[in-house]
Amino acid sequence: RAKTSGRSSFRFFEVDMDASILHRTLLEQRLRAAIKKNEVQAHYQPILDLTNQTIVGFEALARWNDRDFGQVAPKQFIPIAEDCGIITDLTEHLLRAACKVAKTWPDHMCLNFNISPVQLQDTTLPLKVISILSETGLAPDRLVLEITETSLLKNPMSAKTILEQLTAARISIALDDFGTGHSSLSYLRDFPIQKVKIDKSFTLKMNEDKESAAIVEAILILADGLNIDVVAEGIEQPEILQKLNSQGCHYGQGFLFGAAKSAEGITTLLQNELPDNETVPEGAQPSS
Ligand code: C2E
Ligand code: MG
Ligand code: MG
Ligand code: MG
Fold first, then answer.
1. What are the pLDDT digits (tens) for 210-263?
2. Can you list the pairs that 187-192 forms with residues at least 24 positions away whose Cβ atoms lie under 8 Å?
3. Ligand 1 pocket by C-beta < 6 Å: which residues?
4. Per-residue pLDDT at 271
5. C-alpha dihedral, 132 to 137 to 139 to 142, nearest 10°
6. What ipTM does the predicted assembly reach?
7. Residue 94 alpha carbon, nearest atom of ligand 1
8. In angstroms, what is the span from residue 145 Cα to ligand 2's centroid?
9. CA of 201 to the centre of ligand 3 (A)
10. pLDDT at 186
């Protein structure tokens, strides 16, 4: 009897597997086509200086809306792009578009852009990024590449060389989702990293959970000692903002300030956000 049920549950398992492989194959085909047709696009989420709540830049976040699958989350399609070897194409396409968009923002605003672990194995990455910058005219010191701790694990020497080439070109590196991965503090000493982003899982819970609060506090103290900028992700509540501010966390992003919006949405936002002293006073004449 046990044998029979074992066998039948194995068959169910197979059926499930088939369905998910089919689904994935379909997603993969759709994703390839979508990239070609320019249908995967970056949206932009504001990053703020928490001391005065002004926008200092935006993080580009990939968005894909398929006609049948609907809005597919990047957590779902980025791994597919990585596995089937189209992440390089996708990144180049998104980065080029994002740099063009960032070029239209005020000069002091940065563009944060996520780089997959796979790409930190690609020794041609620095050259590709630098050529996209020169092609689009975005100054390298306005670009922040976000990497994760896992990117540094697989081939640390090669990753280090790539990061050194990028920073030599005045591009900044941020360690994303800080505190979650195989956090080794020595990364901050051994790799050229100028910024860390506190993972939202800590920020979201820091008012209700002592451990999360302690981790946030420790990251802030550590970063201060290492002269590294900190961005807190996932700020949703005013109380959390207040607490981070009082602890000396300089930068942040989260739904409290706004989710990612299309390039056009950001243009509108920036027009409305401009402080009074930067708008053209009524009746003023252009001086040319
Ligand atoms: P990430 O780089 O850590 O991006 C932050 C994620 O947190 C985004 O999710 C953003 O929408 C979300 N978020 C921002 N503020 C809040 C908040 O206040 N509360 C909560 N609950 N969430 C918030 P998203 O856009 O779904 O992206 C998920 C992940 O997918 C990113 O995490 C990043 O690892 C990856 N990803 C997104 N776009 C790209 C891309 O163009 N290239 C690569 N390689 N990865 C990307
Ligand atoms: Mg990120
Ligand atoms: Mg993150
Ligand atoms: Mg995160």
1. 999 999 999 999 999 999 999 999 999 999 999 999 999 999 999 999 999 999
2. 187/149, 187/152, 188/222, 188/226, 188/228, 189/226, 190/156, 190/160, 191/152, 191/159, 191/160, 191/163, 192/160, 192/163, 192/164, 192/166, 192/167
3. 45, 61-62, 73-75, 78, 94, 114-116, 146, 176-177, 200, 233-236, 253-255, 259-260
4. 93
5. -70
6. 0.97
7. 41
8. 9
9. 10
10. 86
How many CA within 13 A on the CB side of residue 46? 21
Per-residue pLDDT band for 280 (boundaries 50, 70, 90) equals: very low
Q: Give the pLDDT confidence score for residue 14 in this predicted structure.
A: 55
pLDDT for position 284:
43
Q: Identify which ligand lies nearest to the alpha carbon of 112.
A: 2
Nearest to 40 by CA among 86, 84, 5: 86
Q: Report strand pairing: 54-66 vs 40-49.
A: antiparallel
Which atom of ligand 1 is least distant from the CA of 62? Answer: 38
- Across the chain, what does the average pLDDT equal? 89
Task: Choose among 41, 102, 55: nearest CA to 269.
Answer: 55
Cα 126 from Cα 204, distance rounded (Å):
34
Ligand 1 atom with minimal separation from the 255 CA = 18
Q: Separation of 270 CA from ligand 1 center, angstroms? A: 21
Best mutation site among 43, 45, 59, 61 for ligand 1, i.e. most ligand atoms within 8 A of its Cβ? 61
- Weakest-pLDDT range from 147-161, 209-223, 270-284: 270-284
pLDDT in tens, 47-64: 999 999 999 999 999 999
Longest dimension (CA), the chain: 91
What is the CA(174)–ligand 1 centre distance, in A?
14
